Amino acid sequence: LLWKRALKDRFKYVRRPIEDDEQVLRNKCKFGHRRGQTRKSSSAENKPEDVKVQVEEEPIHLEGSAMDVHIKWLKQEYMKTRRNWKEVDNRMNVTIEIRRKMISDKAPLKDILGLFPFLRCPYQLFREFQLLTHTDIYKKTSEILEIYSENILSSYVVRNNPINIMLQENLKWHTEEDILKYMKMTAACLLLPDVFGDDSSLFAAVNEEVTVGTPVLKVKNPFNVNSCEFALYVEREELAQLDDCTMALAALVAAFHVFDIPCPKRIHRTLNFLESLVSEVRSP
């Protein structure tokens, strides 16, 4: 018994601190726990200013938690040349709840991308869209351009459009069927806002600098097979490089939905048309 007593006395004040998980923190806030602070009066606690500060100071993820381990792994894996995409998919699945909470709470985009840099990859952007909507947006976008490109290009309103004029000039230099189809689909993609009477500057900047903060495509040399470039910009910064017009259009629609960005009124009809076809809901 003496040795038990000795151990008890020795470790009487040694305690392993309990790690505060999210539920513990909520309970502490709920029952007025404030480490190192005196308790305020009930009237002071109910002030809107205090509530606002409390929300802002609540950590998005906890140091040392399982979620923090996943986020750290994703950030490190993103820096590698060869990535374990299967594990990336798994960890993006696990962290989707905290990611959606950040987005719904209007966290700055740079903070979201800082924790989840794989959202810069078109594949993961499309996958996130599919997790939210159960829809393969790349496949749907490809079908939309296949079906509607000829109708768009034959529309009277785009006959004298600079994009259409540029297309017709470049078609003269090629005879390969796949290249002609690629050019026509690219033109149809870029002409969509003009068909609906929307502001094309909110849709794509063709051989120009991006000047808007909402998701927009930056396109260079759209009809030059060897030097064309597509990129998605959000908040005037490049989010992702894209392979072609199909991927570009899919990424544009996905970005509005994934990052919960309000659609500008001057581009609403175009995006409403695309989203209604993607979700297979008939639009007015």
TrEMBL record:
Q: Which PANTHER family does the record associate with it?
A: STERILE ALPHA MOTIF DOMAIN-CONTAINING PROTEIN 3
Native species: Piaya cayana
Q: Where is this region: Disordered?
A: 32-52
InterPro entries attached here?
SAMD3 (IPR042812)
Q: What is this protein called?
A: SAMD3 protein
